[in-house]
Amino acid sequence: MTVNEVCGSGMKAVILAKQLIQLGEAEVLIAGGIENMSQAPKLQRFNYETESYDAPFSSMMYDGLTDAFSGQAMGLTAENVAEKYHVTREEQDQFSVHSQLKAAQAQAEGIFADEIAPLEVSGTLVEKDEGIRPNSSVEKLGTLKTVFKEDGTVTAGNASTINDGASALIIASQEYAEAHGLPYLAIIRDSVEVGIDPAYMGISPIKAIQKLLARNQLTTEEIDLYEINEAFAATSIVVQRELSLPEEKVNIYGGGISLGHAIGATGARLLTSLSYQLNQKEKKYGVASLCIGGGLGLAMLLERPQQKKNSRFYQMSPEERLASLLNEGQISADTKKEFENTALSSQIANHMIENQISETEVPMGVGLHLTVDETDYLVPMATEEPSVIAALSNGAKIAQGFKTVSQQRLMRGQIVFYDVADPESLIDKLQVREAEIFQQAELSYPSIVKRGGGLRDLQYRAFDESFVSVDFLVDVKDAMGANIVNAMLEGVAELFREWFAEQKILFSILSNYATESVVTMKTAIPVSRLSKGSNGREIAEKIVLASRYASLDPYRAVTHNKGIMNGIEAVVLATGNDTRAVSASCHAFAVKEGRYQGLTSWTLDGEQLIGEISVPLALATVGGATKVLPKSQAAADLLAVTDAKELSRVVAAVGLAQNLAALRALVSEGIQKGHMALQARSLAMTVGATGKEVEAVAQQLKRQKTMNQDRALAILNDLRKQ
């Protein structure tokens, strides 16, 4: 059957196909839509009174872009919406640029490839959307004249494009698909159609989505992804605003403004894109919706199907993976049972990593006595190593306070060119156009700019073998920053490709060497506070010597820094930050002067021991695991820092306190003595002691000349015979 419901035609065709299947009239159908806007013919009405044809008029304007009730252009309804809801021209242009950049990035990454069937036209293979404008900018769009009202805000740049397109889906009953072994991308759960005042037809998705969700007892928060047609930026902004939809859930790869709005095809295209997105992102629910001339609105609820038992390992649930490992003889029943003993929700764990089957428990403790910049902290520390938390508490108690000397917090990203014939010339050309680079970076991630962050500086470095690195220094505020920086880099890289077609870009990526996030902390300690008897001055002098030696001998420096990282990594892990990135950055920083050295320095100033640490710490209080892992959120509540900079100061102070305690023990009674009690308890548990047995075995072990598993087991056996 043929359907003509203007912009809703493609989705309406799918709805009708669904209804035919539900009525038992069909089992499988093809449904979709097509539109040829570039070649739409002109029409002429025949006037019977004059027996002649009237003047030609555009069939596209008449049938597709004019409201059937008022006879006015659809764009005027967008002007009505902009006026009623106070949507500015600048907001519309910013929205449009963001749509273009999202689509350009997705296209560059090949995300659309699976949902596009290449088509040969006049000897040319059409295999990607042609309307995407990756070099759009707010300034460029600001030069365009309004189309529908002289004093209006709607332009060709902030409205959907005139283009050709087609989209189709195979719709079948679930029984038919499974009986014939046909995989399916999504399940149609429900669809609705609504009507509103035609004068504001562009915001009909508000009512349609509200009705759809209410009928299915769902909230907007429970929907993972939305594909809502971008007929006009003004109406899209209002729909998103009125429904309080988060930006990261809506049209994640662009919409009608960037991809195009081939009227009859768009409804089916939305459903196609949404189906693929649900599978790519492994999300459950998605809603597709669009406005229709005359005040109509459509919305459809899709659900991603559950994976089947014969899925590949990475597609299985954690329970299915364990069962598979057991069935294949890779693990025993006891091992499977142990893997199943978890505290973290599988819904969280399984979406954080690949092939997840279980979790590893690491004890979390509290470091005490830490004062930084006259603020006291209880420090959450996650570590499997004895003495780490005790050392922090001891060092902090001795120091009685740490002061911030200096602090930065910028992240660095790189766009690297290779095979550059004239590096200096390329750098000169880039420096001349820095204003445009800053603009593109802002457009690539506008939300960070709204939060007060964004690109702060550009640096250029040329290397042997014809490499040039363009370094972006970005303020990511309290976020981890990888997604922010990488999105900016990809956006600017597209600009570079346009400017320098002859140059080759190797990659665009964040650097984890956080030299613009260095924190320097200091402490001053009276030597008398170091004494173990009356030898405080002697201990201080030896700490200074040990610090000096760590700057000379890399074999000692590695162990020196390992002790510092014991504390730093424990806090980083507890708060859900990236331990690998922090560790790599700190160890790279230790070799900044050409040889590996200790990260701390200790000197004597009269009767005071002065300690200082400088470490690169790109830490976050929002994003990533910091807000996903419940224990990380609890750790943040305990630590009670207000932002990422404060967290970095605390972590740097922890490293310095840790080093103080380690060096003091090392140059006085020796490091082993301080570990003895914890080692004794660890040995007791290793040989099977439980409950009160642990302390009893540990006490006897400490009185032995040698502590090892054999002695611990013998003591435990003797205790159990009593």
Gross geometry? elongated
Task: Determine the mean pLDDT.
Answer: 92
Structural class estimated from helices and strands: alpha+beta
Tally of separate domains: 5
Quick one: CATH class of the largest domain?
Alpha Beta
Counted beta strands: 22
Q: Give the terminus-to-terminus CA distance.
A: 90 Å
Question: What fraction, in percent, of the residue positions are helical?
Answer: 40-55%
The fraction of residues in strands falls at: 15-25%
As for the CATH topology of the largest domain, it is Peroxisomal Thiolase, Chain A, domain 1
The second-level CATH architecture of the largest domain is: 3-Layer(aba) Sandwich
InterPro entries: HMG_CoA_Rdtase, HMG_CoA_Rdtase_bac-typ, HMG_CoA_Rdtase_cat_sf, HMG_CoA_Rdtase_CS, HMG_CoA_Rdtase_NAD(P)-bd_sf, HMG_CoA_Rdtase_sub-bd_dom_sf, Thiolase, Thiolase-like
Organism: Enterococcus sp. Gf1
GO molecular function, one term: hydroxymethylglutaryl-CoA reductase (NADPH) activity
Keywords: Acyltransferase, Oxidoreductase, Transferase
Layout: helices, strands, pairs:
Layout: H1 9-22, E1 28-35, E2 42-43, E3 46-47, E4 52-53, E5 57-58, H2 59-63, H3 74-84, H4 89-108, E6 119-121, E7 124-126, H5 138-141, E8 165-172, H6 174-179, E9 187-195, H7 204-215, E10 225-228, H8 233-242, H9 256-259, H10 263-280, E11 285-292, E12 296-303, H11 318-327, H12 333-340, H13 346-352, E13 364-372, E14 375-382, H14 388-399, E15 403-407, E16 411-418, H15 423-432, H16 434-444, H17 446-450, E17 454-463, E18 467-475, H18 482-499, E19 504-511, E20 518-526, H19 536-550, H20 554-574, H21 579-589, E21 600-605, E22 608-616, H22 625-628, H23 630-639, H24 644-667, H25 671-686, H26 692-702, H27 709-721
Parallel strand pairs: 10-11
Antiparallel strand pairs: 1-8, 2-5, 3-4, 6-7, 9-12, 11-12, 13-14, 15-20, 16-18, 16-19, 17-18, 20-22, 21-22
Keywords: Acyltransferase, Oxidoreductase, Transferase
Domain Thiolase N-terminal: 1-174
Pfam family, one: Thiolase_C
